[in-house]
Q: What sequence folds into this?
């Protein structure tokens, strides 16, 4: 069992080393040789830990006071990890250290990836209005950027000699029915001419209702109102009243904001975990306490060489219009890892070159065990190798146990014994 003296030594090594404590020796309450019920007491030097003696006194190497190690029959038990020994701690010391353990179990595990993101307009819901003929803008019904338009709303009024001529050709073709032509060939030509004239008006973005109104009136309109084909928010207005526009000139851009994209950047090593369909939660600084649900719909197949991150696209519904493009967001993506062997993340000690846990073997014995850890998230760690279902590991106080294990391994290694 660990003596109170060695418990204090473990604390000194755990915390004193970081504070630059060198050459500090803990002295026993009483000096002189003693004999335990299990055999003669051995003594060691706190500075020259390989030195052993069966008598109390000073170290012949550095002249420090020798400290009782314990009975020769209570030397530390070897473990399978170099530099660590299995230690035994009595109930009182376990209580003082605050040792807590948890069970190694197999259950469905998840991992949450957190990344920074930004709200963007869904590119699939962008629309631009441009003319397919030249003309002059007589009136702009869209007064400013940010205005809402619905499908069928007037956008602007345009005068175009080409459009006026197309209306006249359509009305003239209607005045010559196929039955009025003397030959079958002439009838086919008249029908085709009427169909072509009507189709030209539709291709120039007049609606069916506008064409029917033209048929009913029988008179061409010099100024024609162009209507919105989609609903959304005006994001750009590139023309003003009285301006001349050529065919192909973009006049108004409209974006449907009923759903948005969130573009998030995840680390390159985490990107393979993200799949299309993963659930995501969006949080905004501008709306504390609120969160918005979305789903991953694209994982981009490239990595940014400057940031070493991969881009993930998340679709987020926005029926109320409370989300605004350009807003920065915090994204949490839930990754389903399936059935995994898991352990409390606090049980794992990372040494830099390996990962160690302390397994509770019962009767106060704690065995150091090297493990391989996979994904870690939300307080749990996935165990790849080193543990089995049902084993119990230390989750609190394992830092002090690790210090004691290292000390015991050092004291129980190759020794130089003196008998002065």
A:
């Amino acid at each position: 069992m660990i003596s109170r003296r060695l418990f204090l030594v473990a604390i000194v090594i755990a915390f004193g080393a970081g504070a630059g404590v060198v050459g500090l020796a803990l002295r026993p309450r009483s000096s002189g040789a003693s004999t335990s019920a299990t055999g003669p007491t051995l003594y060691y030097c706190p500075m020259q830990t390989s030195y052993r003696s069966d008598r109390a006194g000073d170290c012949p190497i550095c002249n420090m006071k020798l400290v009782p190690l314990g009975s020769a029959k209570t030397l530390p038990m070897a473990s399978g990890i170099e530099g660590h020994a299995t230690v035994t701690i009595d109930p009182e010391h376990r209580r003082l250290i605050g040792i807590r353990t948890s069970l190694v179990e197999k259950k469905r595990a998840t991992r949450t990836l957190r990344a920074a993101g930004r709200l963007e307009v869904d590119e699939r819901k962008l629309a631009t209005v441009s003319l397919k003929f030249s003309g002059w803008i007589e009136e702009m019904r869209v007064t400013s950027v940010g205005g809402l338009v619905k499908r069928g709303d007037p956008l602007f009024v345009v005068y175009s000699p080409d459009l006026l001529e197309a209306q006249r050709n359509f009305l003239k073709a209607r005045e010559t029915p196929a039955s009025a032509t003397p030959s079958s060939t002439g009838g086919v030509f008249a029908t085709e001419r009427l169909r072509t004239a009507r189709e030209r008006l539709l291709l120039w973005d007049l609606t069916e209702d506008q064409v029917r109104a033209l048929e009913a009136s029988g008179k061409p309109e010099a100024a024609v109102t162009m209507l919105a084909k989609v609903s959304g928010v005006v994001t750009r207005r590139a023309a003003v009243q009285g301006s001349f526009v050529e065919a192909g000139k973009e006049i108004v851009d409209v974006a449907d904001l009923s759903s948005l994209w969130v573009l998030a950047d995840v680390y390159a090593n985490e990107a393979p975990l993200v799949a299309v369909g993963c659930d995501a939660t969006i949080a905004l600084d501008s709306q504390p306490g609120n969160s918005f649900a979305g789903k991953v719909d694209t994982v981009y197949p490239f990595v940014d060489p400057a940031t070493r991150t991969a881009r993930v696209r998340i679709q987020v519904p926005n029926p109320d219009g409370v989300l605004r493009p350009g807003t920065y967001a915090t994204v949490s993506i839930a990754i389903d890892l399936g059935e995994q062997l898991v352990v409390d993340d606090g049980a794992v000690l990372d040494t830099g070159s390996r990962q160690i846990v302390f397994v509770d073997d019962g009767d106060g014995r704690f065995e150091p065990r090297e493990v391989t850890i996979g994904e870690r998230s939300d307080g749990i760690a996935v165990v790849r190798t080193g543990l089995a279902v049902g084993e119990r590991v230390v989750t609190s106080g394992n830092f002090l146990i690790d210090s004691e294990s290292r000390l015991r391994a050092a004291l129980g290694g190759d020794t130089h014994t003196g008998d002065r």
Summary: Confidence is low (pLDDT under 50) at residues 1-38, 71-75, 413-420.
